[in-house]
């Protein structure tokens, strides 16, 4: 399910499936994109920051057209203890690899991978980013 911003409309709460992972997309070419994500974060339950949130940064192949400071993106990941993934949607191979990575994360967050919790996976992602 996709949403352009949060909070989600409450009139359909009873029809909404369980939310296992929230992937915030930030277009590196749009300051509005970052501002929208920052505003939406206030509407996310704190429990989601225990391994069920990630930031997906798109447009990274066009560094010359950046409108968003990379430090601001890294800070979001740090402040919200959530992994930051980078992707160039215009390149099919990278797009497919990123989709597969998100699907693996979703399976873990949904509890479909025995022995791995969203919290332990999130911790592993943060430690691997430090290396």
Automatic annotation (TrEMBL):
Keywords per UniProt: Centromere, Chromosome, Nucleus
Pfam families registered for this protein in UniProt: CENP-M
Record's subcellular location: Chromosome, Centromere; Nucleus
Main location: nucleus
GO cellular component: chromosome, centromeric region; nucleus
Name of the protein described by the UniProt record: Centromere protein M
Top-level lineage group: Eukaryota
Gene3D superfamilies per the UniProt record, alphabetical: P-loop containing nucleotide triphosphate hydrolases
């Amino acid at each position: 399910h996709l949403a352009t911003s949060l909070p989600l409309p409450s009139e359909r709460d009873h029809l909404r499936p369980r939310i296992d992972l929230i992937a915030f997309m930030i277009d590196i070419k749009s300051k509005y994109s970052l501002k929208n994500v920052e505003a939406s974060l206030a509407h996310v339950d704190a429990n989601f920051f225990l391994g069920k949130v990630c930031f997906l940064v798109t447009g990274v192949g066009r560094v010359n057209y950046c409108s968003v400071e990379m430090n601001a993106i890294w800070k979001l990941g740090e402040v919200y203890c959530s992994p930051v993934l980078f992707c160039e949607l215009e390149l099919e191979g990278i797009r497919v690899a990123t989709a597969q990575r998100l699907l693996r994360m979703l399976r873990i967050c949904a509890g479909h991978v025995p022995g791995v919790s969203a919290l332990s996976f999130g911790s592993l992602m943060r430690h691997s980013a430090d290396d």
